[in-house]
Design brief:
By secondary structure, this protein is of the alpha+beta class. The chain contains 13 helices and 12 strands. Helix 12 packs across helix 13. The longest helix has 21 residues. The chain is globular.
């Protein structure tokens, strides 16, 4: 019998800030860019649960978050506190928590800085699994002063969905014979990988719950979504045979920057892009990669429309010599960038708000 756990730290960045600054407790906390009294650029990284009551959530434009916080304050709610992220601190805390997880599992997989999968099948039963994970919860609380939500199920998919079922500080168990009963009433957005576009399309087909989705044939889902349709067919039935494993290879490396002011200047945007290229080449060498095959440039316009352009180099670009690799990367990046300054990708001449550069298919 497989017993798989997904642990998701609750509002991790904000919770760490509260842990190390007790004055933040019982206050709405927003971690992200400087709001600059509603004129700030960038987005919310995360918000604690008090701030989420105001409608503030991750990826929300920071200016919008500030307006929501101000509206709440004027209604008599506590004033929100905006904090710049301290990623070094979050990384240090995460590393200690991951050590706890790794020591408490047959197999361990770090899914992100604040999420992990644990295989605890050797315990032999779900009752013992609950006891075991309650002990893990308590250990994290005692050592780090942080809370987490836990999902326990027969595979990674069910455990992942279950961990979000009773946040914060929840523990949800789904036994093998309870999978369909658990999944069927959930909205389709509960399935990992179903985003806004897929959700909107499925709603047009009058598919709103996982049960509705489970009644659609694999052939039809494949016709609608291609290869992803086959995986969606399995997910709607709670099927997931993927192993819990920490043996993975990073497939991409990237950076992005939100400008202080929207720009229509090709020279300015190119300068920022070239700076990213230099830093990414250095990071590749630091992480001992030999090179990359695909370059992707991302642009976000002033109206928040976002576009990507990618190009793959047949034999890849090696980073044996920084100078040559940087020159080739800049050429590729510039080729992808230029259409955003003319009618090919920007027919209305919109100003640019954000630029990103990503290297993919690393080797």
């Amino acid at each position: 019998m497989r017993i798989i756990v997904h642990v998701d730290m609750d509002a991790f960045y904000a919770a760490v800030e509260e842990r190390y600054n007790p004055g933040l407790r019982n206050c709405p906390v927003v971690v992200g860019a400087d709001p600059k009294d509603g004129r700030g650029r960038g987005v919310v990284t995360t918000a604690n649960y008090m701030a989420r009551r105001f409608g503030i959530h991750s990826a929300l434009p920071i200016s919008h978050a500030w307006r929501l916080a101000e509206a709440a304050r004027k209604r008599g709610e506590p004033a929100a506190i905006f904090i710049s992220p301290n990623f070094r601190l979050y990384g240090e805390v995460s590393a200690r928590i991951m050590q706890i997880f790794e020591g408490r599992a047959d197999a361990f997989e770090e899914a992100s800085i604040d999420e992990a999968y644990l295989d605890i099948s050797s315990l032999g039963g779900f009752e013992r699994a609950v006891e075991h994970m309650m002990a893990v919860k308590n250990e994290i609380c005692e050592k780090e002063g942080l809370g987490c939500s836990i999902g326990i199920g027969p595979n990674k998919l069910i455990a992942k969905i279950a961990s979000g079922h009773k946040k914060p500080d929840g523990l949800t168990i789904v036994r093998p014979d309870e999978v369909r009963e658990f999944l069927d009433p959930l909205p389709i957005r509960a399935i990992p990988g179903v985003g806004p576009k897929s959700e909107a399309f499925l709603h047009q087909q009058n598919i709103r719950t996982v049960k509705d989705l489970g009644e659609i044939s694999e052939a039809i889902l494949t016709e609608w979504f291609g290869k992803w349709g086959q995986r969606l067919f399995e997910k709607a039935r709670g099927i997931d045979d993927s192993a819990v494993s920490n043996e993975w290879t990073r497939k991409s490396l990237g950076e992005q920057e939100t400008f202080a002011e929207d720009s229509r200047s090709p020279s300015f945007v190119t300068e920022q892009l070239y700076g990213m290229a230099e830093r990414l080449i250095s990071k590749l060498r630091e992480k001992e990669f030999l090179g990359f095959r695909t370059v992707t440039v991302t642009l976000r316009f002033s109206d928040f429309e976002t576009k990507n352009r990618s190009h793959s180099v047949k034999n890849g670009i090696r980073v044996d010599t920084d100078e040559q690799a940087l020159r080739l990367l800049k050429q590729e990046a510039l080729m992808l960038l230029l259409p955003f300054f003319d009618a090919r990708e920007n027919p209305r001449g919109k100003a640019i708000r954000l630029i990103g550069l990503r290297l993919e298919n690393l080797f």
